[in-house]
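pasting for ref
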Amino acid sequence: MTPTPLQGIDLVNCARANAKEGETVAAEQCGYGDNISQFRESLKRAGQELGIEIERLSDLIDTDRLQQRTGESIAPDSMSDL
């Protein structure tokens, strides 16, 4: 558990790492203790700042569900094009 509540990308990364353990564990590990409502608000705000939509913690388990609001995805057409 971190001594101060995480924010921004650190919060999103911590929440993603602990998402499968559930909201209570994720909130505690990310520095929010048992304040689940503050954890939810901060996580949603962090997602907005990063340009991704996070409605609930479970959205972080399946990263394909994270929807980029801005920007463009750039990737090779195939692994051989790397």
